[in-house]
Amino acid sequence: MATPPMIEAFGLWKQFGSFLAVRDVTFTVPKGQVVAFLGPNGAGKTTTMRLLTGFIAPTKGQARIAGIDVQTNRIEAAEHLGYLPENGPLYLDMTPRDLLTFFGSVRGMSRAQLQDRMEAVVTQCALSQVADKPTGKLSKGYKQRVAMALALLHDPEVLIMDEPTSGLDPNQIQGVRKLIRELGQTKTIIVSTHILQEVAPIAHRVLFIHDGKLVFDGPPEAMTADGLTMEEKFHRLTAQPV
Ligand SMILES: Nc1ncnc2c1ncn2[C@@H]1O[C@H](COP(=O)(O)OP(=O)(O)OP(=O)(O)O)[C@@H](O)[C@H]1O
């Protein structure tokens, strides 16, 4: 039997006033694939991700996570989904452990379940040394790991991560990349990034968005297949308005 797609976008459009931020975006991601979302600033990556999570409604089109419509059945779809927003909101006075407890209770997890998952994500995201410190006192890299732990708490099969390495130093970037690679062994992932060098080591596939449209869909190697560097291909894909 064919692997069912875990993420599906069908003819997604999003208009803000008279501005079209996402234009007819269609793709599916099979189980276990790690996809990098590339594109210049303002291309529509975040908007597309927010449409996929059900946080905003499309002007037209449909998105599904694990086969579930994110608009008509948002809560059920959210059970399969972990979302890491860019600069995700964190309650900075709370410790990572408090935050995980709070989010776990909001999700209706039992004490035993929560304890179990708490230990798992604290280990997975290498938070044990800081789990009882106020989140506001942590470095940006650790804050990002806390946000990641929150997204992973309910052990979702699908992860959508918006620029998880932005603003981190090279060591922190390496740590987050390693974590994404590990997660990619068991989960279906979309991760947006501006860092071209990070695409090949983490992703099986690139979806490139420009002016709200999908302008490239293929493996990272195909970005450089015509003898261009990643940077040259990026430039070429964005040289013309769509
Ligand atoms: N709520 C909104 N109201 C009006 N315009 C918006 C809104 N959200 C996004 N936009 C616009 O839609 C376009 C796409 O934005 P989006 O954040 O999706 O791009 P992006 O590819 O994620 O960019 P970046 O890489 O800078 O994060 C931008 O021009 C942005 O200003």
TrEMBL record:
The cross-references to InterPro entries, in alphabetical order and at most eight, read: AAA+_ATPase, ABC_transporter-like_ATP-bd, ABC_transporter_ATP-binding, P-loop_NTPase
Query: Where would I find the ABC transporter domain in this sequence?
Result: 7-236
Keyword RNA-binding present in the record's keywords: the answer is no
Record Pfam families: ABC_tran (PF00005)
What would you give as a GO molecular function for this chain, any one? ATP binding
- PROSITE patterns hit by this protein: ABC_TRANSPORTER_2
Q: Which domain of life does the UniProt lineage start with? A: Bacteria
Q: Per the record's keyword annotation, is Nucleus included, yes or no?
A: no
Q: Which UniProt keywords apply?
A: ATP-binding, Nodulation, Nucleotide-binding, Transport
PANTHER family from the UniProt entry: ABC TRANSPORTER ATP-BINDING PROTEIN, ABC TRANSPORTER ATP-BINDING PROTEIN NATA
Similarity field: Belongs to the ABC transporter superfamily.
| Designated name of the protein | ABC transporter related protein
| Organism in which the protein naturally occurs | Isosphaera pallida (strain ATCC 43644 / DSM 9630 / IS1B)
